[in-house]
What does this fold into?
Amino acid sequence: MDSLLTAATGPETLGHWIRLRTLVLLRWWAVSGQIAALVIGHLAFDLVFDVGLCFLVIGASVISNLAVSLVYPATKRLNEPENLLFVMFDLVQLGLMLYLTGGLNNPFSILVVGPVIVSASSLSARSTIFLGLTAIAIVTVLLWFNVPLQTAQGFELIMPELFRVGFWFALVIAVIFLGVYSRWVVSEMHAMSDALQATQMALAREQKLTDLGGVVAAAAHELGTPLATIKLTSSELADDLPDGSDAREDALLIREQADRCRDILRSMGRAGKDDLHLRHTPLGALVEEAAEPHMNRGKTVLVEHRADDATGQQPMVQRRSEIIHGLRNLIQNAVDFAADTVWVESRWDADRITLRIMDNGPGYPPHMLGRIGDPFMRRRAMPSDWLRPEYEGMGLGLFIAKTLLERSGADLSFANGVDSFAAGHRKSARSGAFVEVSWPRDRLEAEPDQARAALGENQPIWR
It folds into this structure.
């Protein structure tokens, strides 16, 4: 799991993902918009401003775009300082344009929030804070210092001071709110993307192990006959040779090593045989297979099954890698934090199949119950009496389990308490973490013809 976490890329490195070509194209759009605004304002609305200085400021953006396009390839990816410098240039250039065209009296001053949103979406929190403070400083200067816009008749276009101050407050709030909002949304999106990538990697690894087991099982099946022949031949040789002779000892050694090869192949191929010939399995066997790796970890794992329908017969369910891996993660979490015992209980009726995993550990922290299953949960202040400090490391593992099981049609719920399928005094020890996984029966259960197809059709022993 550590390798999956190492492979995930956090928001702090997002600046390395942006191509220079993207920022250059955005700047060309900004330059086109500024030129269009100046031309329309001058020709259509007879506004008077220093056209030469305005086009000089726009020319600086044009020259910088041409320079970086000639020096660097379009596919270059900028690092954090280069991205910050690029966006900071655009912010300062926009501030100069607003200074020459009325400051906060210019309705286009709302565009100051644009570079801040770009930074919040692609750069680190430190760079975003720096850029946001710069934007606030620029709008503060523009509030009091600017070149007023004038009409052809010589009238200055100035809003009342109350409106200008209100507009300043609105811009400051917009910079802060939109910056924080964009930062949170993008961080959540990338955390979810990284976690889903880790989920796919975990599932792919599980599938590869299953496929490898199938290969080993096939090899064990094919080698079974020659190994049996070697054992039979060596046994006959040993019986024909006199006791104590070197040849008899060699024959017995060959038989012993043939048995050893058979046992090794049988052990390696057990999982593969299950996967090849038991695509569907009883519910109890599926649960026990998921719990098997954690049976000998110093904790007692009790597996119980109970029917709520009239037949009492365990349903045949689909044996899928994602279901086994998801249940195994949940059981591993219970074993990690249990005091000494973990209960895994299954129940089924005509409509649903339900599985509950409980332990007698300290349970989930109450303030984190609503966030269980979120990827990469961050460290937060924990109560001083909380005895489960390792909980923060479970974010990705529980997310993977929750995602894989929900893909199979399951509903998951997490809680603390003593609710279980057991009754009476047997419920008292179940006071730790509680996980319930529930499927509609038709989503998990195998069709009868599918279960038969997994094992193959019965063949007559004579023709």
In short: The beta strands are 47-48, 149-151, 156-157, 280-282, 300-307, 316-318, 341-348, 352-359, 411-416, 433-440.
